[in-house]
Amino acid sequence: MILSTELRGKHMGFAWGQGNIFVYETLFKATGSGSPFIHEVRKDEDIYSPILRKLFNESHHIFVGLQTIREDLPSKNKKPQFVSISKNYRSVIRACMEELQQVAVSTKNAEMSVQYGNQVSILLAIELIWNLCEVLFIDAAPAGSLLLHLLDWVRLHKADVDEKARDVLQSDSPAEHRDYWDVVVSYVLQGRLDEARQMLGKKATLTPAANNIFKMMDNLLSKMPFYNPGGTQTLTEFDVKWRHWHEEVDRCLQDNSFASNQHLEVLCKILLGDEDTLLEHKDLLGTWYHFLVSRLLFCHPTVKPTELHYYAQSCMTMFLDSRSAPEPLDSILLAAFEFDIHQVIKDCSIALNNWWFVAHLTDLLDHCKLLQSHNLHFGSNLREFLLLEYASGLFTHHSLWQLAVDYFDHCLEFGRVYLELQIERVPLDTERKALKVLRICEQRQMSEQVRSICKIMAMRALRNNRLGSALSWSIRAKDAAFATLISERFLQDYCAKGTFSDLDLIDNLGPAMLLSDRLTFLGKYREFHKLYGEKRFKEAAKLLLSLMTAKIAPRSFWMTLLTDALPLLEQKEVIFSADQTYELMFCLEELTSSLNTPSSDSDKSMQEEDVELTKVELLRLALSRNLAMAIVKEGTVET
Amino acid sequence: MENINAKYVSQKISKTRWCPVSYSSLQQPEVFATGSWDNEDNKVSIWSIGNHNNSGLEDGFEGDPQILCEHKHGGDVLDLQFLDQERMVSASSTGAVTIFRYHPNTHTISVLQHWARAHSYPCDNAPCTALVCSSPEIVTVGEDGRIVVFRADQEGAVRVIENADSSTIHAVTYLKTTEVLTVNSIGQLKLWDLRQQSSSPSQILSL
Q1: What CATH number is given to the structural domain containing B166?
Q2: Which of A400, A482, B82, B134 has a CA positioned 20 to 30 A from the CA of residue A412?
Q3: Structural domain of residue B167, as residue ranges?
């Protein structure tokens, strides 16, 4: 959000960056002074927080594990696995939340403290929603267990009861603490009847005169039936038992048994599920969904999933009265109670500034086969769309881009295309990073990207005059054109200096030599020099000739090669055979005829032309002499 | 099998090294250093896994690394080596080589020496890819194909072998106290004798 007030009322221009927008003041009129500032607006601040980073890393680990669950098992067997994965996600959120909470409390910077506090509340809300989705959608508890799960859900998110209870119990006289009855009522509202009974026991011992009614209440509390999913009792049997108990409580109320103690009477009314009494304790309930669960606990514990939304809607209306519009969190939870998964995802996407939550939740729900495959206008389904958005956001981060790769891998339709576009934009400061990126591309057979990255590295090396490095990059990319370019540079260096640089590379090219003609020539030419140096003249001569006749050498280099042949021709011993000499002569004639054509450089200086002519004459002389000696030698019969 | 302990630390770690313990003590090392990479602000940190304050030997907390101190580092940490028990050297992607000193009493890290352009191109920075120490000598290699020898107590470089390699040198190690071995990106091992003044390797081996 742009918080700068100085920008209000001014014309603004903007330009897109990668993951951010640059905003600046501009003027539509020609007059007036402008401001020299450019503001950078980052779309997603969260990924830069070091604590939240752990959330992204750990959830990535869980995500990858989820994708590799075997597909062949029927959905029914996989449900416990999905529930456990959902719990993993939630525990990661909780761990992050606790750490943020610690930092928020300990930091001295007030602004940071507020920011951390905000992040904690967002994470709290996220975990609340996720937990509810797990209960309703993934675990999909049937009637009976449903209420028990909802009770757990509420208990988990209302921690202040335990804090208050601790305060009360640690005081000198717990039964006379001012929060005592609040604690008892809160326990009952959450269905924690054993703890309520324990608390009540303390009061009972203090007022022995009222022993009877305390005993009666204790009795009622102990007899309240709770459904046992693993037991042998069916839901109907439980329902009957529960109605029995409900009637007994009603009788106690009608008999005015608790009239002498208004607190116990209130408790009795709560046990009956009296709405007005429940609503009187709004401050203890805190939220409309706590009200909903408590009401269901005491009115309709066998509620079916399909009936939930009636109760949810009415509870929300009763609890919130008409002060203001419901908050985003409320409408999301309501949508969840209505089992409208798409609405939940849509509302969450709008309310949150980061795609993390919706992407992971949708992916999990998709694995549970709970999302109907909607075809969105751009062809992919909802899960893929959200994952792509999330991963694209990750890619803009200087470090988290590696996580995004796995997310793209598991988006079957468009993931690869997105990855191909994004991977080329990772900044490559060091060779090590470039090699990592290359490995990612090579593993996925993205040959275009491999070539492009190698070319970038090769160009950079070339610019820094690291010819060896550049050559090794172009060999890796199998880029013939670039290899040719670099070989030309090497050859130019040789012509200029008379010696080769970077011999260690050229000598050890191996099969990579065949990548480009020029590269092959370079390697073979160097081999010629080595053979000459080792005085293996016959082999050197053969190689030299083959370079020209096999047309490996470029025409421009033939003069140099022929000049190299001169010392071999001048040797006392005959090295070139007669046939070889004829071929050399042929090459020379070919060369001179092309040089004499009118299209050749006419603005060569007189001196250069003289030098050329002298060279040619010397060669002709040497070749003729060699031919003579060779014919004689070959014609001689050894006796 | 022993438990494996995993801890998320909000940064990508490139190198970890145990802090060397004195030869007389028979204990295992408890302190280690890490260097981070691929961050906007990289750091060199020291961690400990000993049980100092908590007397409870719960399995969950034994061996959980606690951070003792950290120091910012310019550029990615491409290599990290301990010079002796208190000093460590880092090789940076900006081409810098830095000696840090860890003070165990105050749990702080300070910079002893910093050679900013140990490795560079004529008009750009070249990452220093690896280094090896044999106190007080430090040998570093980089993407510029140079081998540089430093001494921990001297300001400038003791010896620079220019153009030791035409491609990037990826790693270096000591064979003997006077000989180092380097490997480059085309797979060649080169043996260098530091006693000789020549700029060419005494041996080249191809893989």
Answers
A1: 2.130.10.10
A2: A400
A3: 13-20+27-206
